[in-house]
Specification:
42% helix; eight-stranded parallel sheet; alpha/beta; globular; binds zinc ion; TIM Barrel
Length: 291
């Protein structure tokens, strides 16, 4: 499936269930009508593509995604892979990196289950906050092998933005083309020098926790983006909301998916980021990375 011309949200979950491990029903995002309503609004504001980074073991539901796409006309790309410890399904503990890569490659080439939908991305595969755990390492090696075989991009999860450099080293040592890597949640670090180092290594960086001000004020995100754009590096940045909870949705008191367009981008413009840089970040970069 190709991208449609327009805005892409690069890191989202249409449906995800982390409620078991987190022991919190709010983390079971499964409210079809409310999601459809918000996605229809996104469409009117120019969004055309959603990269859905839910994968094996955390409630990925391709038939549900297909139904949302049909109702909203949004192009929703699906993912393969495994999230992070302790959210892994049993197969991650039982199988080798090679065997896990084979499962990913099968979902990329032949499709996910019997849905007829192929995985377009390997993601979000993640690491813990202070170390890459054994099973996480296994999944990263599997992801790199699947990337080498299929050319598909990898979207990683970092915990609070940490260990991006270690992720690059690990993937690179197994043959990955780092230009095809998107490191997520880097905005949570608030550390511009660190983010510039990731870019310097060739990786793309995602500011994809926009509006989560309990973790990081948006003012810090804006200051960092302004500086990155000033250095001519807007072609290495992506943006998204990473909505994962029912309470993130508008109807439940949350900021909702459209906050990026309604609130955050206008503030970037007020702070001197050019419309061209915003178009590069929200529309163009993902095309280069996924091609
Ligand atoms: Zn994540």
């Amino acid at each position: 499936m190709k991208l449609v011309e327009g805005i892409t949200y690069s890191h989202e979950h249409v449906k995800i269930d982390l409620s078991g491990v987190k022991n919190n029903e709010d983390c079971n995002l499964n409210v079809f009508d409310e999601t459809v309503e918000e996605f229809k609004e996104l469409y009117t504001k120019g969004v055309r593509n959603i990269i859905e980074v839910t994968n094996r073991g955390i409630g990925r539901d391709v038939e549900y995604i297909k139904a949302v796409a049909k109702e909203t006309d949004l192009n929703i790309l699906c993912s393969t892979g495994y999230y992070k410890s302790p959210f892994f399904p049993k197969e991650v503990y039982d199988l080798s990196s090679k065997q896990l890569a084979k499962i990913m490659i099968d979902e990329i080439i032949n499709g996910i289950e019997d849905s007829g939908v192929r995985a377009e991305v390997i993601g979000e595969i993640g690491t813990s906050q202070n170390s890459i755990e054994e099973e996480e390492k296994k999944v990263f090696i599997a992801g790199a092998l699947a990337h080498v075989e299929t050319g598909k991009a990898i979207i990683t999860h970092t915990t609070l933005g940490k260990l991006g450099l270690e992720q690059i080293d690990l993937l690179k040592s197994h043959g990955m083309n780092i230009e095809k890597l998107i490191i997520s949640h880097v905005d949570l670090t608030g550390d511009l020098d660190y983010i510039l180092r990731l870019i310097d290594k060739g990786a793309n960086v995602a500011f994809d926790t926009i509006g989560k001000e309990n973790y990081q004020p948006d003012g810090v995100r804006i200051d960092m983006l302004k500086e990155i754009c000033k250095r001519g590096l807007s072609d290495k940045v992506l943006m998204s909301m990473d909505i994962t909870r029912k309470s993130h949705l508008k109807g439940r008191g949350g900021i909702g998916y459209s906050y990026l367009l309604d609130n955050f981008i206008p503030r970037l413009i007020e702070n001197g980021v050019s419309a061209e840089d915003i178009k590069t970040i929200t529309e163009k970069n993902i095309v280069t990375i996924l091609n």
